[in-house]
Design goal:
binds iron/sulfur cluster, about 425 residues, Rossmann fold, Glutathione S-transferase Yfyf (Class Pi), Chain A, domain 2, Fumarate Reductase Iron-sulfur Protein, Chain B, domain 2
Length: about 425
């Protein structure tokens, strides 16, 4: 039977991504193994194939075969279909692109970015996890991975505004700020959308959602479908340009922030016509400007750093600044900040059904971190982390509390009393 796996297309795509800095990364690995203990998948499974450096193997093989002058003697064998089948699981199910291994690597090798590029080779070969690819296709065809079409967005916004008695701006003609949403929160945690609206209204921000471009998550990037990745960026750019927004606020989703903030301009082929700000950064700025008035919260809380917002995003201190003063019993977990452990579901791993058992094992690292703080609730500012943790929590029947940063902020706003009519 003829195989449908296009190995040559995969090899060509790997090589396209082994230009410039990626070549130096491949050449730089000294095989020291220091990255192993930094990776939650290796720590959770103890399986040597989950070592970060091992995940580079098919890319390195394709590269060496092309570059090695005597490859025709068989000293640098060709990439094989069996390599692709084995590494598909390693590059999709066991890498959340969290960047923790890079911080342990003496050569500073950015494995997360290599994995992101390498996934495109699997798509070129006709491979990749079907559920992750379907999420990308749904984003292209319906506007979001979970089927949140523009019409459904309008219906949900109307329902949430009525139900919670909170004005939610949609399709204003002009606004300073374009707010985007993650379909995970819109469909599964709609209180987050209400909380963002409540907080922005409280601070007097001129903002709007837009049915032209609302989905912040980018499953095109996570699945390796570069055309879908670019399309998702273009939709947000079109929406921001149509309302004249100079700031795009990304909701509680780490990868949504990372892709738009750090890769959006390259995908678009020109500078983004706005600044990209994560909701935790935006709230911190509002607090600095004296526009968020918060009442104290007594409950003990700890903070889970979403990898793409803290370690890879640079907004590590914003959540802490926000919690400072109003979260009166705040307890840091260990390790924390840029060194914090991943939830296990980033990089699209949350959407891959067959990866569930490994995700659950990884979550035990987080449960242990939280339990050592003694805090009642773990707060995070990523709905993908929240969904991963909610599912893993149910699996282990763990009783620790979970909360969203924007929701606790919205719940503790001091609203000025309205003058009597
Ligand atoms: S980026 Fe994160 S998940 Fe991927 S190999 Fe490195 S430590 Fe592991
Ligand atoms: S820590 Fe860096 S140099 Fe060492 S094996 Fe891992 S990727 Fe290679």
């Amino acid at each position: 039977m003829t195989s449908t796996i296009d190995v040559d297309a995969a090899a060509k795509t790997f090589l396209k991504h082994t230009q410039e800095q990626l070549v130096s990364y491949l050449e730089a690995c000294v095989h020291c193994g220091s990255c192993a203990e930094a990776c939650h998948f290796y720590v959770a499974s103890g399986d040597p194939k989950h070592t970060p450096a091992y995940k580079l193997f098919p890319i390195a093989k394709a590269y060496r075969h092309q570059k090695f002058p005597l490859s025709w003697l068989g000293l640098a064998p060709r990439l094989a279909e069996s390599d692709l089948k084995l590494w598909e699981e390693l590059l999709f199910d066991t890498c959340t692109m969290c960047g923790r291994c890079t911080t342990a690597c003496p050569m500073g090798i950015d494995i997360a970015s290599i994995v992101g590029g390498a996934r495109q080779a699997f798509v070129a070969a006709g491979l990749g996890p079907s559920d992750l690819l379907a999420a990308a296709d749904s984003s292209r065809d319906h506007g979001s991975p979970l089927g949140l079409t523009a019409q459904k967005l309008r219906e949900r916004v109307e329902w949430l505004a009525d139900e919670h008695d909170v004005p939610i701006a949609l399709d204003k003609a002009k606004a300073d700020v374009l707010l985007t949403v993650s379909s995970i929160e819109t469909m599964k945690y709609p209180e987050s959308v209400v909380a963002m609206a409540k907080m922005l209204n409280h601070a007097g921000v001129d903002w709007t959602l837009s049915s032209k471009g609302y989905e912040a998550t980018n499953f095109g990037y996570l699945s390796g479908k570069a055309d879908v990745a670019k399309l998702m960026v273009e939709r947000i750019v079109a929406a921001a340009e149509s309302v004249g927004a100079k700031t795009v606020v990304v909701p509680e989703c780490g990868h949504a922030f990372g892709v738009l903030r750090w890769a959006g301009a390259n995908m678009l082929g020109r500078p983004l016509p706005f600044s990209v700000v994560h909701i935790s950064e935006y709230m911190a700025q509002l607090k600095r400007d004296g526009r968020l008035k918060l009442k104290p919260m007594a409950e003990s809380v700890t903070y889970h750093d979403p990898c793409q917002i803290s370690r890879r995003g640079g907004a590590t201190q914003d959540a802490r600044y926000l919690l400072e003063g109003f979260a009166q019993d705040f307890r840091e977990m260990t390790p924390t900040g840029d060194a914090n452990w991943c939830c296990g579901g980033g990089g699209g791993v949350q959407a891959i059904g067959r990866a569930a058992d490994l995700r659950y094992k990884v979550f035990k690292i987080k449960m242990d971190q939280v339990e050592r703080t003694g805090a009642k609730t773990m707060v995070s500012s990523c709905s993908n982390c929240r969904l991963t943790m909610d599912e893993s929590k149910a699996h282990w029947k763990w009783e620790g509390g979970l909360a969203s940063l924007v929701e606790i902020v919205a719940d503790h706003l001091i609203e000025e009393s309205k003058p009597a009519a």
